[in-house]
Amino acid sequence: MHQPKAEIIAVGTELLLGQIANTNAQWISQQLALYGINIYHHTVVGDNLNRVVGAFSDAHSRSDIIIVTGGLGPTEDDLTREAFQQLSKLDMVEHKPSMDKIELFFREHKVVMTPNNRRQARVFTDSIVLDNKVGMAPGMIVSYDNRKWVFLPGVPREMMSLVTNDVLPYLLQLVGNKAIIKSEVLRFIGIGESILEHEIKDIIHGQSNPTIAPLATDSGVIIRLTARADSSEDAIRLIEESKQEILSKIGNFFYGTEQQTLEQQIVDKLRVSNKRLALAESLTGGMATSKLVSVSGASDVLRGGIVCYDPKVKEGVLGVSSKTIAAFGTVSEECAIEMATNVCLVLDADIGISFTGVAGPNESEGKPVGMVYIAVCTRDGHQQVEEFRFQGDRDTIRNRAVLKGLEILFNLLKS
What we know:
It contains 15 helices and 17 strands. The chain has helices spanning 13-16, 23-34, 49-62, 80-88, 96-108, 156-175, 193-199, 201-206, 232-250, 262-273, 287-293, 311-316, 322-328, 333-347, 394-414; strands at residues 5-11, 38-45, 65-69, 92-94, 122-124, 128-130, 139-144, 147-152, 180-188, 211-217, 220-229, 254-257, 277-281, 302-307, 351-357, 371-378, 383-389. The longest helix has 21 residues, at 394-414.
């Protein structure tokens, strides 16, 4: 097959209503891109027969490989098979192994099987039936009019299992892709996507293998490097060369690879340096502590966190001076410094970090929504406090404050 054009159609009104996100298309696109199969279109269509037929007809007119997720269940609004039958005029039959599996499921669970469940076992004549090992409705690969149609369940874990075990091997054989593909994710913090891309634009423009793809995420910016070569060793070498070239320009913002998180790196660095951390959180309400506690082994380095939302708690528990609060308010550099310093003393830690600010929706103490102070103090006398003006709603401001605090901690520990 020539270099194919592929597209993905997700069937389900719940996707259009925003009740669930179309993560299936995102994941499938990521997998196929690793192997040089390009996705040209994403389509979402509701549970309406005429609209699904229309979406299928459009896809058939422009793509070589069409992957459809959803609409294979037992209910009246599961219309994927019916829509494709209208387009293709292919016959459907009941697939006995799938029907046996469905009947066995109901027997084992001692539940009466309603007749509509037989719909899930229907497949197109001469299709390749894909055994759904984690669900009931089988997947299918259908050849029709020089196109390959792949039908998959909408449940993500079922879809992922079929793509990994059946669909990808089939498609790679179909397109004759025998190259070794390797990929690595580089993670950066403290630099925006546009600045990062500007700093390495010469590398991006000069590279075709590996490909370099920057992407902003909730925890910073990532760069995905994807290399294709005749051997695993050559692919790894190409990635390493690009990685070092990128880090020579923006290495100061680099904190990890693949699934490494900022909080994991902080816990690891605290452990290596034999330091103990304590947190005092006002506007973040324990969110930063929760992030760190999510890391396995955090108990080795985390003394604890104090949520001190009320000024009286800042005074009575942390020992923040009433004079400081009266003179400067709780949303101030001075209060943040005392919170960070005192939480070290109260919890017997080497490093203290504090968060105080205005998350909204209204001003507080005459300070605008989004004003945040983050302070870090250490047992040996280091003090650092920074002011930020975050934009967004209440949750966005709090999340950005936590991320910035973790960034400050990481930079302190790596220095």
